[in-house]
User: Fold these one by one.
Assistant:
Number 1:
Amino acid sequence: MLIVNVASKCGLTPQYSGLEKLQAQYAERGFTVLGVPCNQFLGQEPGSAEEIAEFCSATYGVTFPMTEKVEVNGEGRHPLYERLVGFADAEGHTGDIRWNFEKFLIGRDGKVVARFSPQTEPEAAEVVAAVESAIK
């Protein structure tokens, strides 16, 4: 599973296309993307769950599941993100989510396999290689 905090009004929002391509390519092998809407970064995810789902479906053809909107940083951080933020990315960053579209790859055993910065495209070689390794 690739867990991604998402936003509809961000410069990185076009990453939905790459996320959907990963979903389509690997779904039959037990992989899924999980979108986690978050409005903590300059209010770039202002809509309701229904509005977010409609936007993602109509604009990017998103078929992967989306959670309710949650907080990924601060005192109200969702318990899922409490567990995720301790894992380091390739540059050694741990802690708070830096921006929309930070990605966590979870292995079949439920453990974090990799963390990718918001700027790392979903179809980047390092993401695809990590996904393929995790689903073997």
Number 2:
Amino acid sequence: MPVFETALPILILWAVIGYGFGSIPFGLLLTKAMGLGNLREIGSGNIGTTNVLRTGSKAAAALTLLLDGGKGAAAVLLARFLAGEDTAQLAGLAAFIGHCFPIWLKFKGGKGVATFLGLILALAWPVGIACCATWLVAAAISRISSLGALISAASSAVWAFLLGFSSLMSLAIILALMVFLRHKENIARLSDGTEPRIGQK
């Protein structure tokens, strides 16, 4: 994270705004609006893209991916435009936390991968593209979405360093640790070979 130069009340304001953006449960809202059932009762019960895909609707899954990524990007870009770079990073982190722990769903949210990618793209698009490419390659080879997400998150700080965005490294490490914590059950299933593959219900 950068050294904060913005006044504390402004930082708090943008943390709240970022959290508000992140806490919008697009997967849940879309599946209800499209008549696909209660996402909480489908597959893993998670509100993210991978579980939305288990409804059988690729359109709903694609929209969830875009909107969950977009809310992270929106929080970053708006904060950067109105309050500066340090506030943008804080708003991005808050958006990620909001997705994972939305107040509207009793703090039981998603795992944050799309929001993570969206906010990284907005903060430093070369790093974001590298992380997205890493996820795509890892997921395509393994056919396991969670493995792609974990490898992408783990690589984010490395990409930030290699591509000249060292100010992003601390945030990338924090986000990667949170992604791993949110995927602890997936990691357990990966270790015993029972993690579902992409498209598997």
